[in-house]
Specification:
- The complex is a heterodimer of chains A (about 500) and B (about 150).
- Chain A has one domain.
- In chain A, strand 1 and strand 2 form a beta hairpin.
- Chain A is mainly α.
- Chain A has a two-stranded antiparallel sheet.
- The mean pLDDT of chain A is about 85.
- Chain A has 20 helices and two strands.
- Chain B is mainly α.
- Chain B has five helices and no strands.
- Chain B is flat.
- The chains are: A mainly alpha (about 500), B mainly alpha (about 150).
- Chains A and B meet through helix 8, strand 2, helix 9, helix 16 and helix 17 of A and helix 1, helix 2, helix 3, helix 4 and helix 5 of B.
Chain lengths: ~500, ~150
């Protein structure tokens, strides 16, 4: 074992490979920052460039791109209020208010620290418990999946503030949109309203870009400010991380990272849910929950630690069982197979040097990401706030269009981002929460698949949903989540009545 | 704003009903054990959407009667509408003409819209639009981000 580990370290620590990894990390960060360009796209683009390399070098670069791509999403979420990926949706809730208060650099620094912490926690799980955790993840049957997703929906609805009924409507709207196109099990075409354009369904990523980014650009046109953030607050702080910050965030970092690890292991769910659940738990566990959504730094740390913790945990079922946890790990499996490697239990026996190589590359990639982003967050990135929005936002729309086209090389995705931009503008104007639409679109297909599988396995009975321990646990959590949100709403209503 | 909310909720409820009743477009395979089938899930969520929209609709009606109309939180002013039309024209341009030429005109006109349609900075905006189009084109080519094949560049 030690021989293989040393061999792997020797391979990964070659100066040329380190340089290539650094390039990969920077490319990933750039793709993560630009709304519309995703970590998946960056990994897919780089796969052909790794053809000629040995397996460890090729996959090391791809892992670097993956870490950079997921981490970069926080920049546009904090500075522009536009999440680059579904994994950064919850980062907007407090990150953007912090930027508007002149604390953008601080939000970036702490978010990046959360990224590093979450990545390292998931790395620890990856190197120590990969096999055991992968088998634990396999214990999640269809009923457990249904319960976890229902819990996810109640979490995101409970974050809808004072408009929980509208949150329910938004969530169901996303689920109905999800059913448009081919049925995921037998390929029957559904709910296309007679439009050929809708036969292939509606991809969640262009919809998310439309709802969060395109709609936000439209909303910015009517506002009077020349920049996204008020002129006198643009670069008021210097950012950085202090020991007091770390101490104050300790439990939040640990809890959020563990949430990310646990959710990231479940194929098909991943970072898009982890960041919301971590934010919700941070808010519920806080002494000052009323400050969440107004610029509380803990509301930035929680989602960022959780979404990066899903990176390592998504690699666990991929390496140990050969099951990719999300689209990026599916692309990584493709990269592995190009080099003649088959992920799964035998990989640890037949190619231990390769597995150790990934472990080492993962750690180095995380440290590189932190170094690059931390340096940039204290110098280059806050300058984005100085760019007048008349120059910045048109470019964002161009990047979104190109990014959407590159998802499937389809014009339909470009149209969808625009259509959902109009829908998002209308929803924001009428104060309908947008996040539940995106989360239900991301998880809707998995929910339908698992629900149908569950009912097949139980011959039509929903009873196991309430009798199996794991699913019962998540259903109880779902009920508690709604009950707490309703109680909070009642208390707020009572408070406002007493005040006036 | 409540009146517009009512309109939106009626549309959502109608969408739910359509998706519930008119779900299946084509079918070539039936799996006997699959109890929900291809139509079950859309019918359930379509029905729930219609129901929840109706409940919120009733609540909004009551609020309108009790508290009256409230001001709208955002607005579609002339410039926002123009930007929306430009965005549609841009997608059409990228599809039918070409990325570079459409991007140049899109950046030019959208920047002008953001600038309150003032022509005082037109030279700078022209230079910015042309320069950025070239940079974007080069960036996407270098990083192998594919652009649609069209009749122009």
């Amino acid at each position: 074992m030690s021989g293989s580990l040393l061999d792997a370290i020797a391979v990964v620590m070659q100066p040329l490979l380190l340089l290539e990894m650094l390039g990969g990390v920077i490319l990933g960060i750039m793709f993560g920052i630009i709304p519309g360009l995703t970590a998946t796209l960056a990994v897919v683009l780089l796969i052909p460039l790794t053809y000629g390399m040995d397996a460890i070098s090729g996959v090391a670069i791809l892992v670097g791109v993956y870490i950079g791509g997921i981490s970069g999403g926080l920049v546009s979420a904090i500075l522009l209020g536009m999440p680059g990926t579904p994994s950064s949706i919850a980062t907007v809730f407090d990150g953007f208010p912090m930027a508007k208060q002149g604390r953008g650099a601080k939000a970036l620094s702490m978010g990046i620290f959360g990224n590093l912490f979450g990545t390292l926690v998931s790395w620890l799980f990856l190197i120590t418990l990969a096999s055991q955790l992968a088998h634990l993840a396999l214990k999640f049957g269809p009923f457990e999946y249904v319960a976890v997703i229902v819990f996810g929906f109640t979490t995101v609805i409970s974050l809808s503030g004072d408009s929980i009924p509208k949150g329910v409507v938004s969530c169901l709207f996303g689920l109905v949109v999800c059913t448009i196109g081919s049925d995921p099990v037998i390929g029957v075409t559904r709910n296309t309203l007679g439009l050929e354009l809708l036969e292939s369904g509606i991809n969640a990523v262009p919809a998310m870009i439309g709802l969060f980014v395109v709609a936000e650009v439209f909303r910015n046109i009517a506002s009077e400010s020349a920049t996204i953030v008020e002129d006198d607050l643009k670069v008021a702080d210097k950012g950085g991380i202090t020991w007091a910050d770390v101490k104050a965030s300790g439990w939040n970092l640990v809890r959020s990272s563990l949430i990310g690890v646990a959710i990231g292991m479940l194929p098909g769910i991943g970072g898009s849910l982890a960041n919301i659940v971590a934010y919700d738990q941070a808010k519920k566990g806080a002494k000052d929950p009323e400050t969440y959504g107004t610029g509380n730094v803990q509301g930035v740390i929680a989602p960022e630690a959780a979404n990066n913790a899903t990176i390592g945990s998504a690699l666990i079922p991929m390496l140990a069982l050969g099951i990719p946890g999300d689209v990026v790990t599916a692309a990584l499996v493709g990269g592995l197979m190009l080099h003649g490697l088959q992920p799964g239990p035998l990989l640890f026996v037949d190619n231990p040097d390769f597995v150790y190589g990934i472990y080492v590359a993962f750690l180095i990639g995380a440290l590189m990401m932190f170094g690059v982003m931390y340096l940039a967050s204290n110098s280059l990135l806050p300058k984005l706030l100085l760019v007048p929005k008349k120059y910045l936002l048109p470019v964002v729309l161009v990047a979104c269009s190109v990014g959407c086209y590159n998802l499937n090389f389809s014009f339909t995705d470009m149209w969808m981002s625009l259509v959902f931009g109009f829908i998002g503008f209308g929803m924001a104007t009428l104060r309908f929460p947008i996040t539940p639409v995106v989360i239900s679109m991301v998880l809707g297909t998995t929910l339908e698949n698992q629900l149908r599988l569950a009912l097949v396995s139980s011959e039509g009975s929903p009873i196991p949903l309430f009798t199996q321990p794991i699913s019962l646990l998540f259903l109880v959590l779902a009920v508690l989540s709604v009950a707490l949100a309703l109680r909070k709403k009642k208390l707020l209503a009572q408070g406002s009545e007493e005040n006036g | 704003m409540r009146k517009w909310t009512i309109v939106a909720l009626i549309m959502l409820a109608a969408f739910g009903v359509v998706c519930m009743l008119d779900v299946e477009e084509s079918s070539f395979m039936v799996v006997s054990d699959d109890l929900l089938g291809a139509t079950g899930f859309p019918r359930i969520v379509g029905g729930l959407l219609a129901l929840s929209s109706a409940i919120v609709l009733a609540q909004t009606f009551l609020d309108l009667k009790r508290k009256g109309e409230e001001p709208i939180s955002g607005k579609i002013d002339f410039r926002t509408g123009l930007a929306m039309i430009l965005a549609v024209a841009y997608v059409l341009g990228v599809i039918h003409l070409g990325f570079a030429i459409s991007t140049f005109f899109f950046l030019l006109f959208l920047t002008l819209v953001f600038d309150n349609l003032k022509l005082t900075h037109i030279k700078g905006i022209l230079a910015y639009s042309a320069g950025l189009t070239l940079v974007a084109h080069y960036f996407f080519k270098v990083f192998k981000v594919y652009l649609p094949d069209t009749i122009l560049f």
